Amino acid sequence: MNVVELLSDYTIQNVVAGAALLGLVSGVLGSFAVLRQQSLLGDTMSHAALPGVCLGFIIAGTREIGSILLGALATGALAALVMLLLTRMSRLKTDAGLGITLSVFFAMGVVLLTHIQGMNNASQGGLDAFLFGQAAATLRSDLWIMGGITAVALALVAALWKEFKLVSFDPEFATSLGLPVAWLEVLLTVMVALAVVVGLQMVGVVLMAAMIIAPAVAARQWSRRLEDMVLLAALIGVAGGVFGALISALSRGLATGPLIILSVSGVVLVSLTLAPERGFLWEAIRRVRARRRLRYQQVLTTLYRLAVHHADPVYRSEQGMLDTYHGQRTRAVLRQLMRRGLAEWCDTPPDEPGPPRRWVLTPAGIAEAERVLAALGREDL
Amino acid sequence: MLAALLDNVALQIMLVGALVGIASSLVGTFLVLRGTSMLSDAIGHSIVFGIVIVWLLTHQQSGPLQILGAALTGVLTVFLTELLVSTRRVKKDAAIGLVFPVLFSIGVLLLNLYARDVHIDTHTVLLGEIGFVWLDTVTLGDYRIPRSLLSMGAMTLLNAAFVVLFFKELKLATFDEALARALGLAPGVLFYGLLLLTSGTAVAAFDAVGAVLFVAFVIVPPSTAYLLTDRLWLMFLYGIAVSIASSVSGYALAVAWDVSIGGMMAVMTGVFLMLAFLAGPRYGLVAQLLRRRGQRRHNEIRTLAVHLYNHEGGPEQGVENVIRALREHLRWDAAKAGRVVQRSSDRRLIVREGEALRLTPQGREMAREILDPSGRSSA
Q: Which residue among B41, B266, B277 sits closest to A107, beta carbon to beta carbon?
């Protein structure tokens, strides 16, 4: 199947569009969640969407996407509130609150799921596909609903941009300005449930956590401003979503959800390694460079000090002595000094004992050593 | 007795459920106390990867080596998470949420690819099948014993031995990590040992309850216990009690309503937690509210006593020390003023004489003590 055929396939169009919508909404909302250190709340809310899916089905009596998503939204948000209640009103810490809500709500979902299966309702088919998502079953009508939810979420973010930004970075200052901080925080939290709802169809309740976290973490590597981060997170989310969905479409039988998660996580890995300034690779290179520079200056000034102590500007230092003095091999550094014309590797006069060749600073080397010492502010030697 | 147990499917299922709960809450207690409960969520998910790999390699799942191999994935998750955190690019919560979905995704994709070779489907991965544990048995002597019962029993004993042997060290490392390190106890190694056991328990419990319900058994019973007591050993006892009670009641309800047994057991742990949250003796919501109300009432009585004492014997006594004055001067409404006066006279701190209120000697003593706790000025 070539690309044109691929993109004109009805199912694949739906899957790609759905994955793009999911990437868009979870990238934007995830940025706020990650910055506010509420990454795992997304995990809890997505697991807690399962009982809502089942309740929506039971109430509607059929696999009607609207009521299922509404149910998921309700129990996801309810779980966040229960989590807040548990941690605010008792001695339980946040992590325990998250874990309790996640597992008990999910267990309720499992119980309801088996209850539905026991009802022998013919239209129940594939309800448990919400565990891992069922991207291939996405209909055009589902897309309209997912698009509508995404639009609502994005409109809210655009309308309350300044407020959300302030609440995410400096809630105390926001309070002092008279903003309703508590309400804004609840709103931001509940909006994560919107992203979860969009993701139900595509990646399922279990893997939604990564969809919220990964694009935001990747985007943070490349940006220093919230505006850039949110835009980039949306872009990464869309790209990862579409890529994963296409791979899944090409290789029949591989689940879409895990593939989307792996593509987005791949972007995270690349970003963590390669992003300028914040990437590991650049940091490692910077560290090696700094270490090499330090070693280079140390050996240079050692040669200089030896010359000063012996009151002999062309004092010949032995390689072995320099190695012992620095506690490691210095030959590579000395060769580097020689290449730059700061030191010379010259013959020992025949009447002196010891190795046949020794190291001597050139006039340029002496000047450089004096410059380094002056920069360090060390006049005593 | 063993024969009776092995004939009774219900008893076997409940026993496996209780053992999952007991083994999990033994290690979960420390996770909850250290504030790292969500690691059990990460471990529960990522062992799927380990289980699939081990199955593809050995075509076995429940031997000790298989459990150890799969459990190492759980430890790997925690290690990778801590590695990410140590780079200072990612916060701890985000790091947890980045690592386990990747391992879980790979596990699920491997299940897709080798579906014919692997005995587990993606459905069981999440939910387990505790109702079928009695079908998969091993023959030991004359008995056919469910495989899950054996592996869960072994994990329970192992966890209990670890907790008993290192009780002092674990306690110190949990409550005062710096001191533990200063004493040379290597709390990091101890913690990784704990996580290895948690992963092992997750693998052993996988057939019965799956990846996600496992989290409930690890976190919820110890959290319930934490709401009930301050003593560590009591936390274990309460955690074990909650596990057994959840297993039995969950099984009964699941059979009655014809729903998932493992799911219902996990829901029951949540019900017991809610009970402790609402009705716990010291940290429960009701106890907190009652305590707060008692304090508020006590303060009202003290306020009234001081008010009467301040105006006692002065020219304004006739105006101030009457019920009506409380409304204007203390801003109490009539009903509240009436209640406080009633309670104060019940305690014999004041007496009513028509409209007027008068302190009794006890009431006067109380007001004096409030205004001058050290008793200096009266000397």
A: B266
